[in-house]
Amino acid sequence: MGLTMIQKILAKAAGTSSPEPGEIVEARIDTAMIHDATGAPVVAAFREIGRSRVWDPDRVLILFDHSIPAPTESAAWLQKILREFATEQGIQNLDIKAGVCHQVMPEEGWVYPGAVVVGTDSHTCTHGAFGAFGTGIGSTEMAAVFVTGKLWFRVPESIKIIVDGSFPRGVFAKDLILYLCGKLTAEGASYKSIEFAGPAVEKMSISERMTLCNMAIEMGAKAGMIEPNEVVLEFVRSRARHPFEVIKADPDAYYSETVAVDVSDLEPQVACPTQVDNVKPLREVAGLLINQAFLGSCTNGRLDDLHAAAKVLEGRKVHPHVRLLVVPASAQVYRRAMEDGTLRILSEAGAVICNPGCGPCFGGHQGLMAEGERCIASSNRNFKGRMGKGSEVYLASPASVAAAAVVGQIVDPREFFA
């Protein structure tokens, strides 16, 4: 029996031959990331262990993205702890302005095929879009990584999702992953790796692949992974900080489940409060009034996403009762959107353009809501109180977010792409 992608990557990182699902392995870590919302507890746990130096400062990355610039004194204090720790440890890879960690890491070459990437953030699974094993870990686990450069994993079983067909106009990868979240449910892939494959995935852009892998965690998965094609490899070759090896699943690999989806008839989807797997066809909630629209996050804050929104918003105005917040995922995305005129289109339509970062996604700052208000967002979670106590969050594609911002209510975005 052959091996899946994650079995092969963990085998290489652990120096073993063919680990079986359920087996415990100790794997070498290629990249370890902490950010301003989770980093201080890692530093505290590291000091409690008693070691004086991290195992390899060149493989540790500290990013400020959740609350930047610091909106509170406590946020500023946590960031100060990380600045001082970076100086003490000789960690040069400290960035306070680049943007969302999961966007910045591949842009800066920290993610590449076959790598084992850990971060103190659950959406580290995004990096499977580059053929890496990316997963979120806890603060004490990261402290152990800082000391040893290794971490144990239970080898996951894998689910294969085969996607066929071509997306209709106005339907996107975000609609697909929302549909899959509804189909598999929030626990349907618990501690499993999801491999996305098939003709439709092969044709996807890097941005779309990242959207799929980003929300694997919303189905309970340990990782979401896609075999890199030549487009991905071209992106990685000019950036990768270390040599890499492309790792693919064997043709006879075992999967605990195989799911087939044809996107040719897929329609826009929306995840309704207060669970990500509470997914419905968007038409079922069309007409619902909104107060806020949020375009951004590690799921859908990339240039492709801004372009989709700009297509809807060009020559139109945001509804007077709606606040449209646009938070580019990174400084690179921000600059490119500024250079190609996308930010001008969004701004002229009435959007508020914020600095790169996580923004209101996790309820930190840059646009929280009051009780009783409703937001449609391109982000990845809609839990109770996520963006403000007593408020509601509906998850949808960037096009659906932009369309709702124009009309003032949830509306099918396909009419803007006719």
Automatic annotation (TrEMBL):
Membrane-spanning intervals of the chain: none
Pathway in which this enzyme or protein is active: Amino-acid biosynthesis; L-leucine biosynthesis; L-leucine from 3-methyl-2-oxobutanoate: step 2/4
Xref: InterPro entries: Acnase/IPM_dHydase_lsu_aba_1/3, Acoase/IPM_deHydtase_lsu_aba, Aconitase_4Fe-4S_BS, Aconitase_4Fe-4S_dom, HAcnase/IPMdehydase_lsu_prok, Homoacnase/IPMdehydase_lsu, IPM_dehydratase_rel_enz, IPMI_cat
Gene name, Swiss-Prot/TrEMBL: dmdA_1
Protein name listed in UniProt: 3-isopropylmalate dehydratase large subunit
Annotated [4Fe-4S] cluster binding sites: C298, C358, C361
Family according to the record: Belongs to the aconitase/IPM isomerase family. LeuC type 2 subfamily.
Domain Aconitase/3-isopropylmalate dehydratase large subunit alpha/beta/alpha: 25-284, 288-408
GO MF term list: 3-isopropylmalate dehydratase activity; 4 iron, 4 sulfur cluster binding; metal ion binding
PROSITE patterns in UniProt: ACONITASE_1
Job of this protein: Catalyzes the isomerization between 2-isopropylmalate and 3-isopropylmalate, via the formation of 2-isopropylmaleate.
Enzyme class: lyase
Co-factor requirement: [4Fe-4S] cluster
GO process annotations (BP): L-leucine biosynthetic process
Cofactor binding notes: Binds 1 [4Fe-4S] cluster per subunit.
Organism encoding this protein: Neomoorella stamsii
Quaternary structure (record): Heterodimer of LeuC and LeuD.
Top-rank taxon: Bacteria
